[in-house]
Amino acid sequence: MAPKRATRQGATARSRQTTGSRARSSSARSRTSKPATPARRSRPTKAQIRRRRVVLAPLVVVALLAVAVWSYYPVAKVQYREQREKARLETELEGLQERNQKLRAQVDRLKTPEGVEQVARESLGLVKQGENLYVVMDGEEATPTLDPDTPAKATATRDGIWPRVLDVLFGVGE
After folding, report:
1. Does the N terminus or the C terminus of the chain have fewer Cβ atoms within 10 A?
2. 3 in helix, strand or coil?
3. Cα–Cα distance between 32 and 140 in angstroms, integer?
4. Is 81 exposed, middle or buried (0-12, 13-18, 19+ CB in 10 A)?
């Protein structure tokens, strides 16, 4: 094969090809690739630092509060349950003390002859010699009365909605 001779038309065509490919590659390079020189990171300005602090400060506070609540919750739960149990037991103790006082008064009354006679008449239906016992039956049913021998049911008093909310929060149920 014979070497090709460069002609003016051929040289122009080749230069157009190379110029076109260079133009294409430089435009493609500017769109997709990074610049040849590495970009230096500039230092953040004071305004940017303040903006970052304004954004990060509430997040840090919320995170610290969440950690504090998470670590204190078990302690508060035990303390609340113990407090509720103490209040319930104190109320029960008061009821039992009242019941003991009533029973002591009843024992003191039964130690007298009048007390024994009253119990014999009311409970046993006994009468003295020469007396007649009449029982009057009413058509309506009598209202039920509380038996003094039943144990007092003590429940802690609830003042408002907060004890209910705390019961739900700490899992205390009655």
Report:
1. N
2. coil
3. 100
4. middle
Listed residue (90, 101, 88) closest to 155, CA to CA: 88
- The answer to whether 154 touches 91, Cβ cutoff 8 Å, is yes
Three-state secondary-structure class, residue 2: coil
Please say whether the dihedral angle defined by the alpha carbons of residues 99, 100, 101 and 105, taken in this order, is positive or negative: positive
Please, are residues 166 and 80 in contact by the beta-carbon 8 Å criterion? yes
pTM reported for the whole predicted model: 0.45
